[in-house]
Amino acid sequence: MWKEAEEFLLKDKYIGPLVKKYGSCKIKPRVHIDYFQGLVGEIIGQQLSGRVADVIYERLKKKVNGRLTPRKILALSDQELRNCGMAWAKVRSIKDLAQRVKDKKLHIRNLNELPDDEVMKELVAVKGIGRWTAEMFLMFTLGRLDIFPVDDLGIKKGFEKVTGKKFDRIRSAKFTLRWKPYRTVASWYIWRILDN
Fold this sequence. Notes:
It catalyses: Hydrolysis of alkylated DNA, releasing 3-methyladenine, 3-methylguanine, 7-methylguanine and 7-methyladenine. Belongs to the alkylbase DNA glycosidase AlkA family. Its EC number is 3.2.2.21. One of its GO terms (molecular function) is DNA-7-methylguanine glycosylase activity. By secondary structure, the chain is mostly helical. It folds into 2 domains: 3-27 and 147-195, Endonuclease Iii, domain 2; 35-141, Hypothetical protein, domain 2 (Endonuclease III, domain 1). 60% of the residues lie in helices and 0% in strands. It contains 12 helices and no strands. The protein has helices at residues 3-10, 16-22, 35-45, 50-63, 70-75, 78-82, 88-102, 116-124, 131-141, 153-163, 169-175, 183-195. α8 (116-124) crosses α9 (131-141).
């Protein structure tokens, strides 16, 4: 799926060696999944380890007997959501997401048809969904090619390690234009360097 991106990035002096070392990019977009459930998972996962987030997500699914839907979420009290292990801010965020979908303020099924900036605009309108969460959704759910999450801590650390340059939001964003239109794949390789 990422063959063209990998061939392009192989020519870059910073990312090329990582492509050789780590092989093919393993991002597998989940374009046809239930976006509502995916976004609830993204909200739960904010600032948590994957393992902790998974436990909370599974507790929530058990609480609603399976598939997460706006109706099921709105039927739960805030305390019931909180008892699944999430912070109050995440409870409010998930409730806001559910309400917006129910009220058709967020047309969740159409997100994959919108350009990146429109998806971003739709998602950050939800309480508690910021730029980072929207970028993770664009990268890992919709499989968009050209996302570089400048606010991600791993990206900041990895960028410095890979390039030898101090991370600065504006200068680094300009620097990454060299990886356009495949900055999602470049990000994946930058994260890989931190795994070792």
